[in-house]
Amino acid sequence: NCYRSKEAAKGATTDAAIGNAKQNEDAVPGDTASVISLVKGIKEIVGVVLKDNEGNAGATNTGDTEKKSIGKLFAKKDDDRAQEAEAAAANASIGSVSGADILKAIAKPKEDPKVNDAEGIVKATDAAEIAVAPSKDDKKEISEESAKKDAIIAAGIALRAMAQDGKFTAKNGEEKSAHVVNGAAASAVGKTLSTLIIAIRNTVDSGLKKINEVLATVTQGDKSSGVANTGEVTSSGQ
Description:
By secondary structure, the chain is an all-alpha fold. The protein has helices at 2-10, 32-49, 64-69, 84-95, 99-107, 127-132, 150-162, 175-220, 225-237, and strands spanning 22-23, 169-170. The protein has nine helices and two strands, in the order αβααααααβαα. It has a two-stranded parallel ribbon. Its main location: membrane. It is found in: Cell outer membrane.
């Protein structure tokens, strides 16, 4: 788990604010190597701490029009940049799915996201490609069916927010929208990481419980209180 955590941490941003959206500035794709490190690290941890029936990468609950409009968070031309409606749609997408759904959506992509320099966000097919999509004039919608899922969109937002260089955008003069976009990004990251931490903790607790059950079985035939107490200390100490 230590290696896996290091792999995920390797891709994480350090000094920039999460989301880093500013009105009248272009969206910036997450660094591809950074996104790949995050996907690889989180995928390995998720494989250990989440069961097959926990989380659904395809989870989706909001309307297609709203989901497509979230592409404006990744746009270039000012008329295409996010305003309050698109920021609210992003918040709705993130709020409509669970942290486990988002984790499964991060873990789903292949570890080689394609960067489409002509079409940008329009051709993004999964969370990793949303994270690395370059901003292009007139490219302002999430259009690929495989990407138009709330869990995938939330995962893409979380990945871009955590990755080095990743940045969203808001329309000129829309300072409030920029704050809402950054709030959505922070929400996606918070939901992702808090679920991951709880899943890791539950896995550790479950592992320790099993160890203590084995110890209890082993020591049943041994009347040595010292050995028995070792099991109790392990249990209480954790």
